[in-house]
Amino acid sequence: MSSYIIMTPYLHREIRSVVEPALQSMPVVVITGMRQTGKTTFLQNDPLLKQFTYLTLDDFPTLRTATAQPEALIEAGDRVIIDEAQKAPELLTAVKRAVDRKRTPGRFVLSGSANFSLLKAMAESLAGRAIYLTLHPFSRREISGAIGPEPFLVNILTGTKGPSQGVGVPINDDDVLLGGMPSAMELTHSNASLWFRSYEQTYVERDIRDIARVDDTLGFRNLIKLAALRSGHILNTSQLARDTLLSVATTTRYLRLAETSFLFRRLGPFLRSRSSRLIKAPKLYVADSGVACHLAGVDRLGSADNERLRGVLLETYVLQNISSIIESWLPDARVSYWHVQGRHEVDFVIEHGKTCVALEIKAGRRWSGDDLVSLKIFLEKTPSCRAGILAYNGTQTAKLGDKLWAVPLGTLLT
Fold first, then answer.
1. Closest Cα partner for 143 from 37, 45, 34, 11?
2. How open is the CA angle 224-227-228, to the nearest 5 degrees?
């Protein structure tokens, strides 16, 4: 009896569009991102990297060489990929010396599930020698295999016209519940819940053990669950510390560790518009909506119990998609939010150069005039804003006023 192995076809990642110029200009390219977003698959399969010698510190003999004889490891080839490089900080010193001797563009690609720029020793070792890129969870564009055409958001930020009329495909609940983690996307929702549980137990704790010693693992897990319930909200560390029964200092440290392992990200405020009551604290988001749903204990978005979370979990999903698109096509752009205390809020503001686009996210398939109030105020206070977009879960694009549009979420993220 013969047996067959079904190979999942490789899905190209949008990050390749910024990796290519990085390899042509910098001696070290660092590709990081939360664990299990597909970094290893990208490093081993993307045609851009086919001439590189691939090494991983998940392999114990290689790790031992990296710690005992790092110079020998980095001489494994003319162009070397070192995966999970955060496991051997001493290797970075050897990379630094090698680059200082011969500053050849695209000589090293380092990868890991820790934010090297937040790890002091690593950041200092690579200062002036490396560019940092983040591989986000899969976006809708990547899943559909349609990463060639210019993204809608890039066209709006850099083009001369507003959104064109068109039909968008609504985002369904499973899109948000599964998120963009490759292993979860291949499963049904019921089976994916087991994978997310394993992810929490194995990968999150493993990352924390790799990055720093955390004696109170239970306290850390309790913190990330409560923080996930606040995904999309303005960060109040003192309140979070009270709710988790941890000190403010410990809460601050644990949140920093969660950011270093890319589990969470902070979204800063947009401060260029004219208002004395702008909120200046960051918002906190889980990096993947599927992980956010699991940590928050949400398995159905349509239930009455989860209605309060539905909007912010959709925001989390939209942000991970926006981040993948913008950081790959317009790496100098910045995503932020706008909030006037007690009055108005715009979910996302994407700045590029001297202009920006404002996005208000709505989970429903219809909108009313009240949904446009904050966008109109933002446009009034920010003359440089190119467009205010109400992104809703419907199908039709509509012009609603000067620089104001309603756009399907499915169109926004294509």
1. 11
2. 85
| Residue 318 structure tokens | 């939209």
What is the C-alpha to C-alpha distance for residues 359 and 374, in angstroms, rounded to an integer? 10
Note whether 251 and 224 are within 8 A (CB).
Answer: no
Pair 286, 231: CB distance under 8 Å: yes
CA dihedral 292, 293, 297, 298 (to 10 degrees): 160
Query: Residue 357 in contact with residue 389, Cβ under 8 Å?
Result: yes
Q: How far apart are CA 182 and CA 187, in angstroms?
A: 9
Phi and psi at residue 233, in whole multiples of 5°? -110, 160
Task: Give the separation between CA 97 and CA 15, rounded to whole angstroms.
Answer: 28
What are the tokens at 11? 């899905």
pLDDT at 1: 35
Q: DSSP code of 14? A: T
CB 190 within 8 A of CB 239: no
Per residue in 106-128, pLDDT tens?
Answer: 999 999 887 766 666 666 778 78
Whether the Cβ atoms of residue 263 and residue 287 lie closer than 8 Å to each other: yes
250 contacts: CB under 8 Å, gap ≥ 6: 216, 219, 241
Residue 213, token pair as written in the block: 């010693």
Q: Nearest Cα to 353, choosing from 333, 371, 328? A: 333
Please tell me the pTM assigned to this model. 0.90
> How far is residue 375 from each of residues 340, 348, 369, 394, measured CA to CA in Å?
12, 11, 11, 18
Q: Summarize pLDDT for 30-89 with one digit per residue, the tens.
A: 999 988 899 999 999 999 999 999 999 888 888 888 888 888 888 877 899 999 888 888
Instruction: Give me the residues paired with residue 391 across strands.
Output: 361, 407
Note the pLDDT tens digit of each residue in 364-405.
888 888 889 999 999 999 999 999 999 999 888 889 988 999
In this structure, are residues 363 and 347 in contact, taking their beta carbons and an 8 Å threshold? no
Q: For the residues 325-332, what does the mean pLDDT come to? A: 93
